[in-house]
Amino acid sequence: MELIDIGANLTHESFASDFSQVIEDAKNANISHIMLTGTDLETSLAAQALSAANPSMHSSTAGFHPHVASTCDDAAFAEIARLSAGNYVVAVGETGLDYNRNFSSKSDQLTAFERHLELASDVNKPMFLHQREAHEDFYRLLAQYRDKLIGGVVHCFTDNEAALKDYLNLDMYIGVTGWICDERRGLDLQRITPMIPLDRLLIETDAPYLLPRNLGSKPKNRRNEPKYLVSVLEKVAECYQVTPEVIAKATTNNAKRLFNLDF
Questions:
Q1: Contact 29, 230 (CB under 8 A)
Q2: Per-residue pLDDT for 50 more than 90?
Q3: Which one of 57, 85, 159, 164 is at 20 to 30 Å from 137 when CA atoms are compared?
Q4: Could you give the CA distance from residue 57 to residue 53 in angstroms, rounded to a whole number?
C-alpha cells in the first residue's frame, strides 16, 4: 500500500531537530511522497530546497497563506512567481481566504488570492487552496478564474455540504485531514466526505497541526506528522465503507495526476 501526504508543514520549527527521523517513520508507514507546504516566502524557499535535495520523497508548494497576505508585496511575490515557474514546486499556494481570524485584512487577502490565481494560470500549475468562513468570496473568485486553471485542491476541507458541492462543480479536488477523526467537531465532515467522488479525493496531515484524535497512543508533544496519515486513511475508509487499500489507491493516483508527480 502506497500513500501520499499532499500537505505537511515540515519546514515548521518543531521538525528542526528530528526531520530525518520523521521522514524515516513516514516511509515505514508506507508514505511514499510528502508535499511540503509553502505558506510565506521563507517556508516556500525552504520547502523548495528540501524538495530539490530529495525529489523522489518531496515536492513543494509556493505561496502566501491568507494569514500573511499583508506581507505579499511585489518583491516577495516575484520570488514566489520564480519558484512556482521552476522545478520541484508542483502547486501555487497555500493561498485563499480566511475570515475566521482575519490576521490580514479582507482587502489584502482578496488581492493576494487573485494574484495567486493569475500566477497559477500563467505557470499552468494547480492551486493549493485554503478557505475558512469565506466561502462566498472564495468561490466567486475561484469560479471567475476556473477556466484558466488546470485544477486545484481545496486543502483541509472543513466546510459544509453546500460548499463541498460548489467546489466539486468546479471540478476541484478535496483534501481531507485529521479533522475527520475528531468525534466532536468532525461529525459533519464524516457524513459528507463519502459525497466526494473517489477520483476527487486527497488525504493529508497538515502536520504539525490537526493531530488525529483516533490515534491509539498520542505523542506527548501533540505534534502531528506524516506517519499519522494512516489514521486519516482508516477513518476515511470507514466513512466510505470500503477498505483502506481502496482509499490509498485512489488518493495516491489522484495526487500523482493533479500534481504531475513523477517519482
A1: yes
A2: yes
A3: 85
A4: 9
